[in-house]
């Protein structure tokens, strides 16, 4: 870990504290301001003058820092996902405010201004997020411009995945990695000799390809541990399958069970509960908008308003609801267009300027509005809000063995692949992303994907 990374990580603590205090002060003065007081008189200033309020605010802010620490907001990692960090901030501040509310309820002291609590909660989320964003920008600027705290790395690998890793590192210098040497093959003596004599000193070795002999990899790993050099690697197929394990005993004999996904058990219950609540209220809120879209589709072209497309969920066929975005009888014309398919990397069918799409349909697809009726499928339990792309029966017939892992869970309206490149993503990359999601599911990851979907709606035009 570079010293500069420790400094920037440590700097987050006082910045978070100052932002929390600032949020509390801001909420107090907004409440006592004449603009707000004219609507609701201020009654708590006699038993809670600003001086006493400020002391209490300092205590609450210190407690908030402790909550942040427990929630992992001060974990030192080279990269932090923006949306994930924001969600952790919201959860941490919400937990802090909840503790204050519980204390007020049982002690019946302090004050009863719900306005201050609500405004302080909102301001704290905004200011803490802003402070961390500025620290992150400052750190990336220092790394990208002045090489402050960069990691000098050696990359090992010659396949396509290795080239992708190298390209990504070179494309984003502000992430803090600099490739000093690239070895296409593992020649342990040559690599170890280079690591001993390299200047600048190598901080990390990245094994970007999993296609090497186990003994050679272990030898390099042992050498890196001896020389205090970091070691990162791309896992092979078996290693990715051991990401979810559970230890059980059978008559005293330990057994390791490789779980297909964390969605087994309580994970499945939680995910289904979220699906039902969000799809139900989503349909109610969007009902007027759905009616308007239905009228426009009917006026624009002949045919039904909705279509039911054959899809497969966990090896069961069902009808996926969508707003009609193509001309009537589009499926019958598909056979004549197969020769124009632009997706040569797998069983998927895609034409950039599909002649079957109507004028209104092109707009609906551009902003994924045609997928809104899928909330009905979510409510029925046929798909989920988040999951792999819904699969067509004719596509599944051509899937390889490793592709079929995406059928283990329900497909989703959106998913990790959709927010990472959508239909422009190579089929194999899509399968890898969906497989990763299946093996590493969490509720926080679902929330992150849902939030990112709204961003992608206005940036990704690959559905047109």
Quote the average pLDDT. 81
Provide the structure class.
Answer: alpha/beta
Sheet having the most strands: 4 strands, parallel
| Strand count | 10
Cα(first) to Cα(last) distance is: 44 Å
Number of domains: 3
Strand content range: 5-15%
Poorly predicted residue ranges: 248-258
The level of helicity is: 40-55%
Widest sheet: strand ordering: 2-1-3-4
Assign an overall shape: flat
Number of helical elements: 16
Order of helices and strands: HHHHHEHEHEHEHEEHEEHHHEHEHH
Determine Rg (CA atoms, Å).
Answer: 27 Å
List the topology elements.
Elements (H helix, E strand, L loop, with lengths): L2 H30 L1 H4 L12 H21 L11 H26 L6 H33 L4 E6 L3 H12 L5 E7 L4 H10 L6 E4 L6 H13 L3 E4 L3 H5 L3 E6 L2 E6 L7 H35 L5 E8 L2 E8 L6 H8 L21 H8 L7 H7 L3 E3 L6 H4 L15 E3 L12 H13 L3 H15 L7
Parallel strand pairs: 1-2, 1-3, 3-4, 9-10
Antiparallel strand pairs: 5-6, 7-8
Helix pairs in contact: 1-3, 1-5, 3-4, 4-5, 10-13
């Amino acid at each position: 870990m570079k010293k500069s990374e420790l400094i920037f990580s440590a700097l987050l603590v006082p910045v978070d504290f100052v932002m929390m205090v600032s949020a509390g002060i801001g909420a107090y003065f907004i409440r006592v301001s004449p603009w707000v007081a004219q609507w609701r008189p201020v009654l708590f200033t006699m038993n809670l003058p600003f001086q006493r309020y400020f002391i209490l605010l300092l205590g609450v802010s210190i407690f908030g820092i402790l909550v942040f620490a427990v929630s992992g907001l001060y974990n030192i990692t080279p990269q932090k996902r923006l949306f994930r960090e924001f969600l952790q901030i919201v959860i941490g501040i919400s937990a802090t405010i909840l503790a204050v509310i519980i204390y007020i309820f049982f002690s019946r002291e302090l004050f009863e201004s719900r306005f201050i609590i609500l405004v302080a909660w909102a301001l704290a989320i905004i200011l803490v997020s802003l402070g961390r964003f500025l620290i992150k920008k400052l750190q990336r600027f220092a790394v990208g411009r002045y090489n402050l705290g960069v990691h000098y790395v050696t990359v090992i690998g010659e396949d396509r995945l290795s080239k992708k890793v190298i390209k990504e590192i070179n494309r984003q210098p502000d992430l803090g990695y600099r490739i000093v040497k690239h070895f296409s093959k593992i020649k342990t003596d040559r690599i170890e000799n280079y690591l001993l004599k390299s200047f600048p000193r190598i901080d990390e070795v990245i094994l970007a390809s999993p296609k090497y002999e186990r003994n050679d990899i272990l030898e390099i790993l042992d050498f890196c541990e001896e020389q205090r050099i970091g070691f990162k690697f791309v896992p092979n197929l078996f290693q990715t399958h051991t990401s979810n394990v559970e230890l059980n005993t059978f008559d005293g004999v330990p057994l390791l069970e490789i779980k297909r996904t964390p969605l087994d058990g309580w994970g499945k219950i939680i995910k289904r509960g979220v699906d039902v609540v969000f799809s139900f209220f989503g349909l109610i809120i969007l009902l007027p908008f759905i009616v308007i879209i239905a009228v426009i589709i009917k006026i624009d072209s002949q045919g039904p308003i909705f279509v039911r497309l054959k899809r497969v969920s966990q090896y069961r066929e069902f009808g996926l609801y969508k707003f009609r975005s193509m001309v009537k009888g589009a499926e019958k014309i598909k056979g004549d267009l197969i020769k124009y398919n632009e997706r040569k990397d797998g069983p998927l069918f895609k034409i950039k300027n599909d002649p079957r799409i109507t004028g209104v349909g092109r707009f609906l697809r551009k902003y994924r509005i045609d997928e809104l009726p899928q909330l009905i499928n979510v409510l029925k339990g046929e798909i989920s809000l988040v999951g792999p792309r819904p699969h067509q029966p004719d596509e599944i017939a051509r899937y390889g063995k490793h592709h079929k892992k995406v059928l283990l869970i329900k497909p989703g309206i959106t998913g990790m692949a959709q927010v990472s490149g959508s239909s422009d993503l190579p089929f194999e990359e899509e399968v890898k992303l969906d497989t990763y999601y299946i093996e590493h599911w969490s509720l926080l990851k679902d929330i992150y994907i849902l939030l990112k979907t709204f961003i992608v709606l206005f940036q990704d035009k690959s559905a047109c």
